[in-house]
Design goal:
By secondary structure, the protein is an alpha/beta fold. It has nine helices and eight strands. About 50% of the residues lie in helices and about 20% in strands. The longest helix is centred in the last third of the chain and has 25 residues, at about 160-185. The relative contact order is 0.08.
């Protein structure tokens, strides 16, 4: 395995028909990142491998979304036209860097879609096996384990769905925390106040709620004031958070 290119930031080697690029531990900025990609592209055009492996363990840059299109048009498309078909990445230590890599491909519906591996050995094994195929499952696969009064849910998702899944998990976690903090306030609502709360949360006006519940608009206004006081609502976002958490 001979070294083809080296700089302060990357080294490029070749193993059989696989070009291997590895980032060094020196921190990157966007300008250096783009320049090294251009340097890499020149090496790629000269070598013309069928497969490419990016060793990302040391990669610590959160790729700015404003250069996603540039990466696609100036780096990935030329590689595809030059014959690249198999692309593999190892996973960076920094989660934000890994998510930005995934987004850089997904956001532009890239012509190339990489496969992600935890180790160099597994990535090379995949690339060397021309018959290997990764499963493209859009559904989320999960398992549930219960032990000592606790439940653990393990999710298995397609890498394309990972950013979207993490976003929803964070939203769900925020709702759990909100419920724990505000449950005592919500439980103070009367049945009528709860009905009014549901109607307000669905976007109904005081007039529409009054007609549906067969009470006066003045009474609805009174209930609305009571809800704001009991739930300590200070903004429209508070209404939305209560609705998402408790309804």
């Amino acid at each position: 395995m001979g070294e083809i290119y080296t700089s302060d930031y990357i080294s490029i080697t070749r193993e059989e028909d696989i070009l291997i690029q590895e980032w060094t531990k020196i921190p990157l900025n966007t300008q250096i990142f783009q320049q090294e990609l251009l340097n890499f592209l020149e090496v790629f055009k000269s070598e013309r491998p069928e497969s490419l492996l990016w060793l990302q363990e040391n990669f610590d840059l959160e790729i700015p979304d404003e250069i996603y299109e540039w990466i696609e048009k100036c780096i990935l498309e030329p590689q595809y036209k030059a014959g690249l078909r198999n692309l593999a990445f190892t996973v960076p230590k920094e989660q934000y860097a890994h998510l930005s890599i995934i987004e850089s491909f997904n956001d532009v519906s890239s012509i190339l879609q990489p496969n992600y591996f935890l180790s160099k050995e597994k990535a090379l094994a995949f690339l060397k096996d021309k018959k290997s195929k990764t499963s493209e499952v859009d559904e989320i696969d999960y398992t549930i384990e219960r032990e000592n009064g606790k439940t653990k849910i393990c999710l298995k998702v397609n890498h394309k769905q990972l950013p979207h899944t993490i976003k929803h998990l964070k939203k769900l976690n925020a709702q759990f925390k909100f419920k724990a903090k505000h449950l005592k306030h919500f439980e103070k609502l009367t049945l009528r106040e709860f009905e009014v709360f549901k109607s307000i949360s669905s976007g109904m006006t005081n007039k529409e709620i009054a007609s549906a519940l067969i009470i006066s608009e003045l009474t609805i206004a009174t209930h609305r004031k009571s809800l704001i006081k009991k739930l300590k609502i200070k903004s429209p976002n508070d209404w939305e958070m209560y609705a998402n958490t408790f309804l």
